[in-house]
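Quick start: what a row looks like.
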Amino acid sequence: MTVAAVAAGVSLAATIVAEIDFQGVKYKVEEYAKVAAQLLVGYYYLAIGDSAGKMLVSPVRLPTVAVAALAMQQGFSVYSPDPFEAQLAAQTAGGGLSPVLDPAHRDGYFAHYHAFGRPKPSSHVFYGMPTAKGSYL
């Protein structure tokens, strides 16, 4: 499954593994729950999220916040375990302007940031863990 398919509204429900091609490198993305223990604070990771709340993440680190911001500017989503680092990536992607915070939309979803103005192509910086039942309000 490709990022373009997800952007077009294809669900990740049956997907366990997908691939993202970013800057000529292919990143294997897997279900968040399967790679969560490998995702360290202080790093950014490519991610794919869908409208059903499912998220796939690459356990391969992006080297800097600047690279994470570049990925966002090109329409890719990223993940950071830390909310402050997520905010920094979105702010960097938005040219230093304040990013837009979206709380998790439903149970099991991730809170996330968008670059200022929610530019197209749409991208996110997801962070933390999926919300527990009733905690997204």
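That is the whole record. Residues 83-93 form the longest helix (11 residues). Helices lie at 3-7, 32-35, 65-73, 83-93.
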